[in-house]
Amino acid sequence: MTAAIAADLAPNHSTERAKVSTMLTPNFYRTDYAAIDAFDVEPIRAEWNALMKEFSDDKNGDHFDRDEGFGREVTELPPALKEEFIEFLISSCTSEFSGCVLYAELKRRAKNPDMADLFGYMARDESRHANFINQSLKDFGLGVDLGFLKQAKKYKYFAPKFIMYATYLSEKIGYARYITIHRELERHPERRFHPIFKWFEQWCNDEYRHGEAFALMMSAKPELLQGRNKLWIRFFLLAVYATMFVRDHTRPELHKAFGLDPTEYDFQVFRITSECTKQIFPFTLDIDHPAFRAGLERLCRLQTAVDAAKAEGGVMGMVKRAGCAVAAVATFAGLYMLPVVRHAKLPQVRMQAVW
Questions:
Q1: What is the CA radius of gyration of the chain?
Q2: Which of 17, 67, 163, 320 is the most exposed place for a label (fewest CB within 10 A)?
Q3: pLDDT digits (tens, 9 = 90+) for 152-186
Q4: How do residues 68-107 score in pLDDT, each as one tens digit?
């Protein structure tokens, strides 16, 4: 292979960034596809059929088409904001494409017509989202090679119940994040520094609908919400919230441009997500407990220390990183032990998006 051909086949910088897997970056997943395909939705057939009708109607079918003025609205951004915004786009594109890859594989392997329908619709939606974001990256000359990413990204195996918890929360917190940004920019359109934000409302409604599907699936298999599985629910709630909090505090310029304080923004997202998850989970995290915010802030400081230790390098850098890792685990364990807020089971699973 000549050097010229090798250079042509090499992934670009954005793709390399998307390929990296850390605690703070989106991951790709494998699972027991047959076990998920075996889900029986007969106990919630009426709600299921209504949801499938919404997917089939595809009211967002033409939403992810850029209008003629889109490119002309893209303006030059200050360097620090541009860097954080591009990182936000790469992370968002990777996350959406991760869902697309998982759902498409579930669709491909499905023998159960209910699961085939669901995951076909969801893969369709996530593909639109990923490609729409990628077009904005291409405006900067930084598009992600999604075909290469699918082959090169490391995949993590998650048991089916973990897929249920993690993807349900990912879809619901995705809704909460997008709708919170949308509402802020709706009040202050002068802060809409890029046209992609005009698409956030309908976009987040797709995320909400995907979460509804997983809520229905879990309700059809109630053992996922009982016994020792409650410990896993608590773990995934905390892991998703903590990861978001730490990651968002690495983007100060982005939140400043939105006119949002990252801490207050995150807690608003937590509140919306907690209200959403009442539809299926038997409890929510006590996000108003003083120790909850203090623990998340400590995790942020530890992440900053880890980044400094990486930059330092050498033996001392490795020692410092190890110390931070131990402290982070201890902090996470302390947050895990905080009391939760229990609530009564709601009369029906599905909820309307009212935020």
A1: 21
A2: 67
A3: 899 999 999 999 999 999 999 999 999 999 999 99
A4: 777 666 678 899 999 999 999 999 999 999 999 999 999 9
The tens digit of pLDDT for each residue in 323-353 reads 999 999 999 999 999 999 999 888 888 888 7
Q: Is residue 338 a part of any domain in this protein?
A: no
Asked if 125 and 103 count as a contact pair (C-beta separation under 8 A), the reply is: no
CA gap 252, 255 in Å, rounded: 5
Write out the DSSP string of 38-104: T---GGGHHHHHHHHHHHHH-TTTTTT---TTHHHH-----HHHHHHHHHHHHHHHHHHHHHHHHHH
Q: How far is CA 326 from CA 162, 293, 338, in A?
A: 25, 19, 19
Residue 209 lies in a domain: yes
Q: What is the DSSP string of 340-351?
A: EEE-PPPSSS--
- Under DSSP, the state recorded for 10 is S
Q: Phi and psi of 211, rounded to 5°?
A: -60, -35
Does 354 reside within a domain?
no
Task: Please tell me the distance from the alpha carbon of residue 38 to that of residue 111, in angstroms, as a whole number.
Answer: 9
Q: How crowded is the C-beta side of 107, counted as CA atoms within 13 Å?
A: 14
Instruction: List the domain range (segments joined by +) for residue 157.
Output: 13-64+71-232
**97 occurs within a structural domain:** yes
* Chain CA centroid to CA 84, Å: 17
Residue given tokens 């051909």 in the structure block:
5
List the beta bridge partners of residue 283.
342
Is residue 39 within 8 A of residue 114, CB to CB? The reply is: yes
Selection from 300, 197, 283 nearest residue 246 by Cα: 300
Beta bridge partners of 341: 284
Strand pairing report for 283-285 and 340-342: antiparallel
pTM of the model as a whole: 0.91
What tokens does 63 get? 């939403």
